[in-house]
């Protein structure tokens, strides 16, 4: 068996966390390919290294001294080096970084140094080979990862008989310039390597024990999700469950490689297992009707009214083209015979709203156009809902009983998710109501 293991910033925040990582690696010889993020926060008063590096760049751009902030980074890594007895010449590394950024500031190079330095420290501590991500993660000029080129480089540079540490979050463009991913991109690096090595499991170690049925900030002590499909995860991640980077799913899903989200601070917890689907043997027990309840606040609904619009060929396409012109993604489009509602994120449209409304009226001659803001979208996700007749009706009935006004509802044809629009002020209340009705009551029924 072979595994790729990725450790997030909280897992490598200081020397104590490094010791936990080593214990996890030593406990399982199959944990051979190790991806690391930059050092995260040790406490609420601490700072993530990547945040400090971005701040250094801002100071450099404005001609303000960055040395005090940079020294905070130096202090953090020197604590790790001295506490763990590492021989790595960090002074030389910091000198090189200073020289590079003062002569020619490349933002991507600078902010990638957190992963780079953490990788160097972790490789020595684990007695592992260090392979720079710049040497193996190949980007195309459009920012996408060149999987074929990356696979060639990885196989040429990595000795699979040894433990290997590779920094996450960055790689290299065809011209040799460092390129970083979006924040949380180390998840993607791990997934890419899992695909290339065709491993048995991709373990993603973080500071939570996998996914929960609902956000712990909304529901007290929510149930942990033991198993979730990639499709369910995509729905939940898109609507707000942000344990794992959205794009980390695709490289492993292609080969049906399971992702196991684990907690570095509680390694005995099995975490959440993610895969394409689960057999009856995998499930052991029937899956819960609802896998997860998540959502986001702050959406805008534009309601367009025009008699006989549904009978007019190309009508929706013309509406969509106006939003496309302004680079606005549509979340959902609830429709009736003469009414079309377009749901978009408020932040995306707020500066362009009146221009879009003007074009919609001028081009399509609506009888009426209404704008409602402060809408929240609640997503109820579950692969077993399709086997439960009347599920959407039961959810709506429960929200009605709690005096929660339902603004929109969308259900996918595969019955994997039901997305309900409510007022922002009812967002927490709606999630709590659904959780209490379908999770707590089910638990109570099983215990009786």
UniProtKB/TrEMBL annotation:
Residues 378-438 form the Aspartokinase ACT domain. Keywords: Amino-acid biosynthesis, ATP-binding, Diaminopimelate biosynthesis, Kinase, Nucleotide-binding, Transferase. It is an enzyme of class 2 (transferase). It catalyses: L-aspartate + ATP = 4-phospho-L-aspartate + ADP. Residues 1-263 form the Aspartate/glutamate/uridylate kinase domain. GO terms for molecular function: aspartate kinase activity; ATP binding. Pfam families: AA_kinase, ACT_9. ATP binds at residues 6-9, 206-207, 212, 217. Pathway: Amino-acid biosynthesis; L-lysine biosynthesis via DAP pathway; (S)-tetrahydrodipicolinate from L-aspartate: step 1/4; Amino-acid biosynthesis; L-methionine biosynthesis via de novo pathway; L-homoserine from L-aspartate: step 1/3; Amino-acid biosynthesis; L-threonine biosynthesis; L-threonine from L-aspartate: step 1/5. SUPFAM superfamilies: ACT-like, Carbamate kinase-like. InterPro entries: AceGlu_kinase-like_sf (IPR036393), ACT-like_dom_sf (IPR045865), ACT_Aspartokinase (IPR054352), Asp/Glu/Uridylate_kinase (IPR001048), Asp_kin_monofn (IPR005260), Asp_kinase (IPR001341), Aspartate_kinase_CS (IPR018042). Its EC number is 2.7.2.4. Substrate binds at residues 50, 115. GO terms for cellular component: cytosol. One of its GO terms (biological process) is diaminopimelate biosynthetic process. Catalyzes the phosphorylation of the beta-carboxyl group of aspartic acid with ATP to yield 4-phospho-L-aspartate, which is involved in the branched biosynthetic pathway leading to the biosynthesis of amino acids threonine, isoleucine and methionine. Belongs to the aspartokinase family. This is Aspartokinase. It comes from Lactobacillus porci. The lineage of its organism: Bacteria, Bacillati, Bacillota, Bacilli, Lactobacillales.
